[in-house]
Amino acid sequence: MPASVPAGCGGEEYGHEVARVVEFLQTDGRSLLEAIGHSRDRLSEEMKFEEAARQHKRFEKVQDVLKLQDDLARDVDRLNGVAITRSLAADAVELWFVREGHWQEPRRFQFGVMEGVTISLDRKLRESFAEVEARRLPVRERREYLALLARWYYSSWRDGEWLGFESFEDIPYRKLVNAVSRVGGAGRQLV
């Protein structure tokens, strides 16, 4: 609880509103949509159609706001993904991993044939992700890295792609293969 509660608002009421905001953020807005939807449906059943229509407009406004949300707009502890950028090395891209809001060690992802054996991009990417060890950064360092990520992501000069996902156990490898191919492809034949 903060040191000062806004005037005209009791401490208990303020705590309740803070909890609602936290729930809204944790559920990506679903908690508010469900509450408004239930209210709208109840009002319709009670034949209070004007109030139900107001709730429906409110529901649509919340949906419109949620459509503006992008991959980085989430609770930082649930921020997982990889930035894929071009590499200075030939036939490679750089993979910049973010796991639960913490930057991990970047990896150079090399294309082509290894030891005379052709390995699929999907398999090589799975192996790269399996090698990522989770590291926790101090708060100040974490903030600095996340500020760099946001600056790169929202910039007009961004060179590369961001692929966000829910967790490292649920990586959309098909999308990852496509993103790596787009960033590193530039006319190359990728295996």
Task: Describe the structure in your own words.
This protein has 191 residues and is an alpha+beta fold. 47% of the residues lie in helices and 14% in strands. The chain contains six helices and five strands, in the order αααββββααβα. Strands 1, 2, 3, 4 and 5 form a five-stranded antiparallel β-sheet that branches. The chain starts with 10 loop residues before the first helix and ends in a 6-residue tail after the last helix.
Could you name the ranges where pLDDT drops below 50 across 5 or more consecutive residues?
187-191
Question: What's the oligomerization state?
Answer: single chain
Q: Give the % helix.
A: 40-55%
For the termini, the CA-CA separation is 55 Å
Number of helices: 6
From the alpha carbons, calculate the radius of gyration and give it in angstroms.
Answer: 22 Å
Q: Helix/strand-derived class?
A: alpha+beta
Q: What's the SSE pattern? A: HHHEEEEHHEH
Total E-strand runs: 5
**What's the shape?**
elongated
Largest sheet: 5 strands, antiparallel
**Portion in strands:** 5-15%
Mean pLDDT: 86
